[in-house]
Structure formats: C-alpha cells, structure tokens
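User: Some background: our group keeps a shared notebook of sequences we're curious about, and every so often someone picks one and asks for a predicted structure to add to the entry. Today it's my turn. The entry only has the sequence so far, pasted here. Could you supply the structure so I can complete it?
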Amino acid sequence: MICPNCGHDNVPGAEQCAGCEQDLTHLDRPQPLYRIEQEILEDRVRDLELTQPPTIRADETVQAALTALVKHKVGALLVVDRDDKLVGLLSERDIALRYAGQPGCHADLPVEKFMTPAPVTVTPSEPLAYVLQKMDAGNYRHLPVVEDGRIVGMVSVRGVLRFVARRLRSGSH
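Assistant: Of course. Here's the predicted structure to add to the notebook entry:
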C-alpha cells in the first residue's frame, strides 16, 4: 500500500507507514464496487427477519433434538440451561459428525455431548459484512444473536442469502 503522505510502498495491510509513521488503517477498509456491497457493509443484523429460534435444554436427548430440527424445519437449535441462558448450539452437522462411524445408537444421549459449547454470537447492531466474515472465518452456518444476555434470534447462511436475494430482486444493487 502506497502512503499518500510520503509515497513509501508499505506491506499490504500495514497499519502505519514505515516511511513517515502516518496512520494507514483508514486506507485498508473495503471499498464497495456495487450498491449491494455497500448495503451489506451498512445493513445490520437487526435488518434481517429475526425470529425467536427453537431451543432445547442441554440435558434433553439427541432424539428430542432430531425431532425438534424436523418439526421446526431448521438446521440448528440453540441449547439453553434451566434459566434459558445460551450454553451451546446443536446443528445437524454436529450430530452427523459425532454419529459417523460410531457403533451403537446414541439417540438417548444428552444434547450436551453433541453440541458446540459457548458458541460465537453476534448482536443486532453488528453489520452484515462483519457477520459474514465471522461465519466464513469460523466455518459457521448459524450464529446466535444475543442482546443484553438474551437470545433474540439466529443468523443463518440461508437467511442472509434470502435477504440478499430480496435486495437484488428489488433492484437495490
């Protein structure tokens, strides 16, 4: 990255010019090429159609979780304790990966043996671009949305794709 102050050719992503020590962080922000990119940088999690996601207790069985996944037509459940505080996330992938190659039936085991404990969360005020980066970097398909310690929703890859597709159809690109 070329410093606009002194012309020094810095390493890409440098926070400070090696030539004159000018702050370069403002130059490394993504620059949208299209309106849809600008909207993803500006839109917030609260702009998605968040609904209260289905939950399950950590001591309930995997069979109960599978039933809930099918009933609610979702790919993940938020796992809560007796006070409805988030303690984990259980996805269909979690179950499949832990079942794979294991002899015997695990349907009666507790959800806590299969869940991802202390999942990464986001807040309603975070930009969609930030959330997408978190999902990509962590290889997550679902992120719980928490505000003031309360579960207020869940962001899914499918939900974000639907949001973007609606924007594109409405001509907002």
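Suggested note for the entry: Residues 88 and 118 are 5 Å apart (CA to CA). The beta strands are 55-57, 76-80, 86-91, 116-117, 142-147, 150-156.
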